[in-house]
Amino acid sequence: MSDIGHVLVLAGGLSYEREVSIRSGRRVAEALRSAGVDVEIRDTDATLVPAVLSDPPDVAFVTLHGGAGEDGAIRSVLELLGVPYVGATPDACRVAYDKPTAKAVVRSWGLNTPDSVALPKETFHDLGAAAVLGRIVDRLGLPLFVKPSRGGSALGASIVRTAEELPAAMVGCFAYGDTTLIEKYVEGVEVSVSVVDLGDGPVALPPVEIVADGGVYDYAARYTAGRTEFFAPARLTQEATEACAAMAVAAHAALGLRDLSRTDIIVDETGRPYFLEVNVAPGMTETSLLPMAVEAGGRDLGALCTSLLEVAVRRG
């Protein structure tokens, strides 16, 4: 048995990504138990705080996706309760969770990221959707990629190849958030690079290449077995692989993250990587990218999660 003590895995929540979060929590709990760790899984409902006060855990592992799991709120509560946890601080989460803000930060560090415009729903009401959308196409060109400024799992995200498709894409996006991020779409190889820091500084795991059925890595492609083909490590040149690793580590540092993160990148035909977004609570399901990267790097998921918990305990 591990000497870490009582570990609390937080999973579920009330975001659109609840079911994915439950699956992530279950996978992490199973991996930790296989490593001899005493694990309790809890949802983030009204019973959480009383339960923690009556039986304080030694450390927590947050596997909540979207909303409170990634915007720092639950981590703030854990700090109020005096519970050490794996992952970024509340302040860092708030910056990373807001995609336009994260893009501005990494751009200030010299990282490539597609040109974009972030606009709230009210702007279209006040100024007129047709006029605003026309200027977006004039400025960024086509194709475009439309996604909510917050949230994950590609919910509300879509590729826009013609100007006529943009209004419907915006409506679909606003169903998942009040602000939309419209990016210039970069054709290329989609990869994800996970970063872990076990106390000696952030290190990139092997990049995972994503080849989605139909060409769009949407919610169904992410969480339905067989809908997407993955290559770990990615089929990139050595130079492109190193550039992606450097970008992920730099984004991790620029955004003030700790312990673990996952950066999504597009590599264009010249081998140049473009930062898309970063995830402070990477998925841990059977089709998620971080566990694939862990395996490709010759590591064991249970051992890695245990090491991350040990780092959090020492920090706490």
Automatic annotation (TrEMBL):
<dbReference type="GO" id="GO:0005737">
    <property type="term" value="C:cytoplasm"/>
</dbReference>
<comment type="function">
    <text>Cell wall formation.</text>
</comment>
<dbReference type="InterPro" id="IPR011761">
    <property type="entry name" value="ATP-grasp"/>
</dbReference>
<feature type="active site">
    <location>
        <position position="288"/>
    </location>
</feature>
<dbReference type="InterPro" id="IPR005905">
    <property type="entry name" value="D_ala_D_ala"/>
</dbReference>
<feature type="active site">
    <location>
        <position position="153"/>
    </location>
</feature>
<dbReference type="InterPro" id="IPR013815">
    <property type="entry name" value="ATP_grasp_subdomain_1"/>
</dbReference>
<keyword id="KW-0067">ATP-binding</keyword>
<comment type="similarity">
    <text>Belongs to the D-alanine--D-alanine ligase family.</text>
</comment>
<dbReference type="InterPro" id="IPR016185">
    <property type="entry name" value="PreATP-grasp_dom_sf"/>
</dbReference>
<keyword id="KW-0963">Cytoplasm</keyword>
<protein>
    <recommendedName>
        <fullName>D-alanine--D-alanine ligase</fullName>
        <ecNumber>6.3.2.4</ecNumber>
    </recommendedName>
</protein>
<dbReference type="Pfam" id="PF07478">
    <property type="entry name" value="Dala_Dala_lig_C"/>
</dbReference>
<keyword id="KW-0133">Cell shape</keyword>
<keyword id="KW-0464">Manganese</keyword>
<dbReference type="GO" id="GO:0046872">
    <property type="term" value="F:metal ion binding"/>
</dbReference>
<feature type="domain" description="ATP-grasp">
    <location>
        <begin position="103"/>
        <end position="310"/>
    </location>
</feature>
<comment type="pathway">
    <text>Cell wall biogenesis; peptidoglycan biosynthesis.</text>
</comment>
<keyword id="KW-0547">Nucleotide-binding</keyword>
<dbReference type="InterPro" id="IPR011127">
    <property type="entry name" value="Dala_Dala_lig_N"/>
</dbReference>
<feature type="binding site">
    <location>
        <position position="264"/>
    </location>
    <ligand>
        <name>Mg(2+) 1</name>
    </ligand>
</feature>
<feature type="binding site">
    <location>
        <position position="277"/>
    </location>
    <ligand>
        <name>Mg(2+) 1</name>
    </ligand>
</feature>
<keyword id="KW-0961">Cell wall biogenesis/degradation</keyword>
<keyword id="KW-0436">Ligase</keyword>
<dbReference type="GO" id="GO:0008716">
    <property type="term" value="F:D-alanine-D-alanine ligase activity"/>
</dbReference>
<feature type="active site">
    <location>
        <position position="17"/>
    </location>
</feature>
<dbReference type="GO" id="GO:0008360">
    <property type="term" value="P:regulation of cell shape"/>
</dbReference>
<dbReference type="GO" id="GO:0005524">
    <property type="term" value="F:ATP binding"/>
</dbReference>
<keyword id="KW-0460">Magnesium</keyword>
<keyword id="KW-0573">Peptidoglycan synthesis</keyword>
<dbReference type="GO" id="GO:0071555">
    <property type="term" value="P:cell wall organization"/>
</dbReference>
<dbReference type="InterPro" id="IPR011095">
    <property type="entry name" value="Dala_Dala_lig_C"/>
</dbReference>
<dbReference type="Pfam" id="PF01820">
    <property type="entry name" value="Dala_Dala_lig_N"/>
</dbReference>
<feature type="binding site">
    <location>
        <position position="279"/>
    </location>
    <ligand>
        <name>Mg(2+) 2</name>
    </ligand>
</feature>
<keyword id="KW-0479">Metal-binding</keyword>
<feature type="binding site">
    <location>
        <position position="277"/>
    </location>
    <ligand>
        <name>Mg(2+) 2</name>
    </ligand>
</feature>
<dbReference type="GO" id="GO:0009252">
    <property type="term" value="P:peptidoglycan biosynthetic process"/>
</dbReference>
